[in-house]
Amino acid sequence: MFNPVAPATGGTAAGAAGLNRKKGFGVGTGRVPCYTQPVPLRIRTRPEDDKAIVVALNGHLILDNGTMLHDEVRSLIEGGAKRVLVDLAGVDFIDSHGIGQMVACETTARNRKSEVCFVGLRPKIFKVMEMTGMPSVLKFDTDLQTALGKLGGA
């Protein structure tokens, strides 16, 4: 029988809740930890060569962070920004709420005749995007420099 928690926890419900930690799991071991605490989301915003505003995220993009990402992007767009690049290179975990925040950013941008592009996703995060069909809804690019180059002189 397939048990999705088996590789990380030995397959017990207590292990899935982080109550049955096994020795040798965790950071630096190359093995999946049984439980990790959410990493607070930090947001840094900066202009980039008069082409776009970069919003760099670091941490987990999850429910615990509320609407921080969308609030920041909405504020920039309402302030006149036409192009916003959201740099997700520092995001190592995302949940469905985080994906919802990304969609909300796209909707706000589209309604205000602006653009938002998500760049620098780690492979495991982009895999989640592919599994949920987000490349047909959101704009993605490999990294910040590539995205800026595509903006050209616009």
Question: How would you portray this structure in words?
Answer:
The chain has helices at 6-9, 13-16, 68-78, 96-111, 123-131, 144-151; strands at 42-48, 52-61, 83-94, 115-119, 140-141. Helix 3 packs parallel to helix 4 (96-111). The chain is an alpha/beta fold and 154 residues long. It has two domains: 1-36, no CATH class; 42-151, Transcription Regulator spoIIAA (2-Layer Sandwich), CATH 3.30.750.24. The protein has six helices and five strands; from the N terminus they run H-H-E-E-H-E-H-E-H-E-H. Helix content is 34%, strand content 23%. Strand 1 and strand 2 form a beta hairpin. A five-stranded mixed sheet has the order 1-2-3-4-5.
Radius of gyration: 18 Å
- Specify the overall morphology: globular
Number of continuous helical runs? 6
Instruction: Report on the biggest sheet.
Output: 5 strands, mixed
Proportion of strand residues: 15-25%
Low-confidence parts: 1-22
Can you give the mean pLDDT? 82
Within the CATH hierarchy, at the fold level, what is the topology of the largest domain?
Transcription Regulator spoIIAA
Listing every helix as H and every strand as E from the N terminus to the C terminus, the arrangement reads HHEEHEHEHEH
What's the helical proportion of residues?
25-40%
